[in-house]
Amino acid sequence: MNIGLIAHDSKKKLMQNFCIAYRGILNKHELYATGTTGRLIEEVTNLNVHKYLAGHLGGQQQLASQIEHNDMDMVIYLRDPLHPKKHEPDVNDVVRLCDIYNIPFATNLATAELLIKALDRGDLEWREVYR
Ligand SMILES: O=C(CO)COP(=O)(O)O
């Protein structure tokens, strides 16, 4: 499965810890991330991440384009709902595309954990049929 990973700056540490905790599941899948998020994940895990440009330099659009091609099976976007930085792209473009293609999407740790466990159980295998 193809998994998209994006984190606003204040959530990057959380994303790193999430990837450390679930690396045993994540390493069975293809990981795609915006540039900085992907680099930070690779720094603390031995996971291989396909890295797009930095989010604010077009990386988020690159990842969105992969969703638009219905080539993403799950997206975890840890966003900062309280103090997003000015340069940080809006989450809504990605939300909209995930809704169009019916892609499981998490914006917080609780949902991300539910999705990753579901992925490991095989609950998302229907994506291979309908992709
Ligand atoms: O686009 C993003 C959300 O702000 C994140 O991009 P980076 O991972 O490159 O920081």
Protein described:
47% of the residues lie in helices and 15% in strands. The protein is an alpha/beta fold. The chain has one domain: Rossmann fold, CATH 3.40.50.1380. The chain has a five-stranded parallel sheet, sandwiched between helices. Helix 3 (35-44) links the parallel strand 2 and strand 3. Bound molecules: 1,3-dihydroxyacetonephosphate. Residues 6, 8, 34-37, 54-56, 59-60, 88-89 line the site of 1,3-dihydroxyacetonephosphate (13P).
In CATH terms, the superfamily is Methylglyoxal synthase-like domain
Question: For the terminal residues, how far apart are their CA atoms?
Answer: 11 Å
The SSE order reads: EHHEHEHEHEHH
Average pLDDT over all residues: 95
- Overall shape: it is globular
CATH architecture: 3-Layer(aba) Sandwich
Strand content: 15-25%
Helix and strand composition category: alpha/beta
Helix content: 40-55%
- By DSSP, the count of extended strands is 5
> Which ligands appear in the coordinates?
1,3-dihydroxyacetonephosphate
Largest sheet: 5 strands, parallel
Work out the helix count: 7
Query: CATH first level: which class?
Result: Alpha Beta
CATH fold-level label: Rossmann fold
Identify low-pLDDT runs: none
Give a topology summary.
Layout: E1 2-7, H1 12-21, H2 23-26, E2 30-33, H3 35-44, E3 49-51, H4 59-68, E4 74-78, H5 92-101, E5 105-106, H6 109-121, H7 126-130
Parallel strand pairs: 1-2, 1-4, 2-3, 4-5
Helix pairs in contact: 1-3, 4-5
The structure holds 1,3-dihydroxyacetonephosphate.
